[in-house]
Amino acid sequence: MGALLSTARSLLNLLLPFTNPNTPVIQDLIHTAVLCGTLYYAPQIAEYYNVCRNPPVYIDDTQQTGSEQDNAALGNPPDDIPIDENLVLQPDTDDGEEVEPPPLAPTPPPGQARAPPAEPAVWGGVNGDDQPQFAEAGPANADRPRPTPANRVVGAKKAKSLARKDQRRAYHEFHRQEAELRRLREAEGREEREAALQAEKARRAEVEREIAEREKSERERKKEEERREQEEERERRDRVVQRVRREVGGKGAVDLVDLAWEEGKDKVWIEKLIRASGMLSQVEKAGSHTMITGDGWLVRIDAVLMQKAYADAVAFGDSNEGKVSFSELGGILEKAVRARVKALAH
C-alpha cells in the first residue's frame, strides 16, 4: 500500500510544476505555461478529433415519414395498451410490401371553397410537340384539408403513445370528477351539519353550565358545613372548659373521660383541650396543686386533702405492721378524693 501511494505521489510531482525544489524556476514557469495551454485547447482538440474520425451524415428530411420520426423519438411501449378507434393506423412497411393508400380526408364544412381537381396533363401541345401541358402553377394539394389530431395518419407506436396520454387524461379526469362529487355532497348537507353542530355546542354549553352550578353549590354547601362544624367545635370546647372549671372549683375533681363521652370525643381530645386552655394553672389556688391522673381525672390537691390522706395512711400502717407502699398511698389518696367529690355532690 505504501509503494502504491509513493508511486502516485511521484507521478503527481512529475506532472505538476513547483513540486521539486531542485528544479529551476524558469523550467517550472515553462511547465506551467505548457500545462495551462494544454488544458485550454484540449476541448477544441478533442472536438476536431471526433469530427475527423466520425464525419456527420446528412439525411434528407423529406424522405423520412412522420411515422418514422415518431417511432425514432419513442421507445417500445407495451403491446397491451388500447388504441383509440378514431385514429387511422398506418401499418409498418419495413419489409417493402406495398399497402393500400390511406382513406381520403373528411369533407370540408359547408361554405368552404373547394378547389376543382387538377386536370391531367395533356400530351401533345397545340404546336404538335410532345411536351405535356400542366395547369397553372400553385400550391401543392391545395384542396386537401389541413391535418389535425383527429384525421392525421400516425404509426402504431405513436398511436400507443397517444393511447397512454388518453389513459392518463381519463385517469386525472376521473379523480377530478370524484373530488367534484365529494364537494357537491358536502355542500348539500352543510347547512344541516352546521345546524346540528350548533345545537350540539349549545347542549354541551348548557350541560357545562349545569355542572359548574352544581359544583359551585357543592362547594358552598361544603364551606357552610365546615363553618358550622367549626362553630359547633368551638362551642363544644367552650362548654367543656366551662364545665371542667366549674366542677374543679366546686368539687376539687372531675372525671374527664365522662365529659369526653358526653361530647362524643375521647380521652386524648379532652386532655389536649385542658392542657391547651391553661386549665391546670388557672384552677390552682395557694397551697394546692392540679394534675391529671392516669384514669383521666382532673384533681386539685390541697393541704386539707393531704392531711386526711396521711391520717388514713397512718391508720393503714398501724394495721399493717407500719408498712405503706407508694401504690397503697396512691390508693388511699384516690379514696380521699372520691370521698370528697361524693360528699360535695350531695
Automatic annotation (TrEMBL):
Its keywords, alphabetically, are: Signal
Sequence ranges of Basic and acidic residues compositional bias: 163-173
- Biased composition of type Pro residues is found at 101-111
Top-rank taxon of the source lineage equals Eukaryota
List the residue ranges of the region (Disordered). 60-173, 185-240
| Signal peptide segment | 1-21
Record protein name field: Uncharacterized protein
Q: What is the lineage of its organism?
A: Eukaryota, Fungi, Dikarya, Ascomycota, Pezizomycotina
